[in-house]
């Protein structure tokens, strides 16, 4: 799930719509986590959801999960994404914030591989700092 429900007050609008290399942060983040072994990509939208949906350039297979409780914080977006994953009978989830659209494919693949080996939680790290996506 790509968490993209925030208002982006400091950015002047939703981070999901920030332009990046011919697309948007959201389109790139969704493409980054759409790897072999990922059954479905879910984008969790909230603030300006209609605008984000219309302007972001998401491919058709990306499922949209709406979070009407987005003003209450990111955790409500995680819950909305988990509800979507449960509806899809997912075995595991990747949790990825929209403001990290340039994650490397090998990073996502490493998290997926750790989950496939039975890790209950997998979080990439670099230079002793945790990163994204986190797998559960």
What is the count of β-strands?
A: 9
Cα separation of the termini? 11 Å
Task: Give the overall average pLDDT.
Answer: 93
Largest sheet: 5 strands, mixed
Low-pLDDT stretches: none
Order of helices and strands: EEEHEHEHEHEEE
How would the global form be characterised? globular
> How helix-rich are the residues, as a percent range?
25-40%
Helix count equals 4
Rg (CA only)? 14 Å
**Adjacency order of strands in the biggest sheet:** 5-4-1-6-9
* Overall SS class: alpha/beta
Estimate what percentage of residues fall within beta strands: 15-25%
What are the main properties of this structure?
4 helices, 18% strand, 5-stranded mixed β-sheet, two-stranded antiparallel sheet, 136 residues, globular, single chain, alpha/beta, 31% helix
Quick structural summary:
31% of the residues lie in helices and 18% in strands. With 136 residues, it is of the alpha/beta class.
Layout: helices, strands, pairs:
Blueprint: E1 2-4, E2 19-20, E3 23-24, H1 25-33, E4 42-45, H2 49-55, E5 63-66, H3 74-87, E6 94-97, H4 105-116, E7 125-126, E8 129-130, E9 134-135
Parallel strand pairs: 1-4, 1-6, 4-5
Antiparallel strand pairs: 2-3, 6-9, 7-8
Structural account:
- With 136 residues, this protein is of the alpha/beta class.
- Helix content is 31%, strand content 18%.
- The protein has four helices and nine strands, in the order βββαβαβαβαβββ.
- It has helices spanning 25-33, 49-55, 74-87, 105-116, and strands at residues 2-4, 19-20, 23-24, 42-45, 63-66, 94-97, 125-126, 129-130, 134-135.
- The strands form three sheets. It has a five-stranded mixed beta sheet, with helices on both faces. Strands 2-3 form a two-stranded antiparallel ribbon. Strands 7-8 form a two-stranded antiparallel ribbon.
- A hairpin with a 2-residue loop joins strand 7 and strand 8.
- The longest helix has 14 residues, at 74-87.
- The chain is globular, with a radius of gyration of 14 Å.
- The N and C termini lie close together (11 Å).
């Amino acid at each position: 799930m790509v968490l993209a429900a925030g208002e982006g007050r400091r950015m002047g609008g939703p981070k999901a719509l920030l332009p990046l290399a011919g697309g948007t942060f959201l389109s790139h983040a969704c493409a980054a986590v759409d790897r072999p072994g990922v059954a479905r990509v879910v984008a969790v939208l909230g603030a300006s959801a209609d605008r984000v949906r219309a302007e972001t350039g998401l491919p058709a297979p990306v499922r949209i999960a709406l979070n009407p409780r987005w003003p209450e914080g990111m955790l409500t977006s995680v819950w909305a994404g988990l509800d979507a994953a449960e509806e899809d009978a997912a075995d595991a989830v990747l949790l990825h914030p929209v403001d990290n659209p340039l994650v490397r494919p090998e990073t996502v693949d490493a998290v997926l591989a750790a989950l496939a080996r039975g890790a209950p939680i997998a979080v990439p790290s670099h230079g002793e700092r945790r990163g994204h996506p986190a797998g559960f």
